[in-house]
């Protein structure tokens, strides 16, 4: 058990029967009345962020989670197969637990968050930036921009489509920001 005084960003707690991480918190001591803690909590399973206010000193159930390095091997039916990089053990994970499932390619390093007491995988996330090859995009025409931020659709090697600047062509390698699925830069 932990109290509101123990709150830290990234701490995992049980809130309304669901596992949540603390995204942001603020201790408030008004001139009148009791102190309280204003928080933003992110549900680990759904990714939904909710705001909640706790009275100061309230006890909450802290959950211990661990982040481990895995490598994506292949897709088998509906599930994804990952291998632990330390002991080479393989696990199958359902697609609803995987963020940006269409950006995964074989051999990609990922982080899997586990519930430490139950040894149950909770979420799978890619690194913030990944390198991909453009497999198809329409050619950009010179002078075809009304502004400097003109974008076009491009298909990357995993089959996903993202928006890229007009100067990017088929066969080029780019860096993709996995947090918002946007083009970051060209890879030389």
What does this structure look like?
By secondary structure, the protein is an all-beta fold. The protein folds into three domains: 2-62, SH3 type barrels, CATH 2.30.30; 65-125, OB fold (Dihydrolipoamide Acetyltransferase, E2P) (Beta Barrel), CATH 2.40.50; 129-186, Beta Barrel (OB fold (Dihydrolipoamide Acetyltransferase, E2P)), CATH 2.40.50. It contains no helices and 16 strands. The chain has a six-stranded antiparallel beta sheet with strand order 1-6-2-3-4-5, with no helix packed on it. It has a five-stranded antiparallel beta sheet with strand order 9-8-7-10-11, with no helix packed on it. Strands 14-13-12-15-16 form a five-stranded antiparallel beta sheet, with no helix packed on it. A hairpin with a 4-residue loop joins β13 and β14.
What's the short version?
By secondary structure, the chain is mainly β. It has strands at 2-3, 12-15, 18-28, 36-43, 49-55, 59-62, 65-76, 79-84, 90-93, 109-115, 120-125, 129-137, 151-156, 161-165, 173-177, 182-186. It has a six-stranded antiparallel β-sheet with strand order 1-6-2-3-4-5, with no helix packed on it. A five-stranded antiparallel β-sheet has the order 9-8-7-10-11, with no helix packed on it. Strands 14-13-12-15-16 form a five-stranded antiparallel β-sheet, with no helix packed on it.
């Amino acid at each position: 058990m932990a109290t509101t005084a123990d709150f830290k960003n990234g701490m995992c707690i049980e809130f309304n029967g669901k596992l949540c991480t603390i995204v942001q918190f603020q201790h408030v001591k008004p001139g009148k009345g009791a102190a309280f803690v204003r928080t933003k909590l992110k549900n680990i399973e759904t990714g939904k962020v909710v705001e909640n206010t706790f009275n100061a000193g309230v006890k909450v159930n802290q959950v211990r989670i661990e982040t481990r390095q895995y490598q994506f091997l292949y897709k088998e039916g509906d599930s994804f197969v990952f291998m632990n990089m330390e002991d080479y053990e393989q696990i199958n994970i359902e697609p609803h637990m995987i963020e940006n499932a269409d950006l995964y390619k074989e051999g990609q390093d990922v982080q899997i968050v586990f519930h430490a007491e139950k040894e149950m995988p909770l979420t799978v996330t890619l690194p913030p930036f990944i390198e991909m090859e453009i497999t198809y995009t329409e050619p950009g025409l010179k002078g075809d921009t009304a502004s400097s931020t003109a974008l076009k659709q491009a298909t990357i090697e995993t089959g996903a489509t993202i928006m890229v600047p007009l100067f990017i062509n088929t066969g080029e390698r780019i860096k993709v920001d996995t947090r918002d699925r946007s083009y970051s830069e060209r890879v030389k």
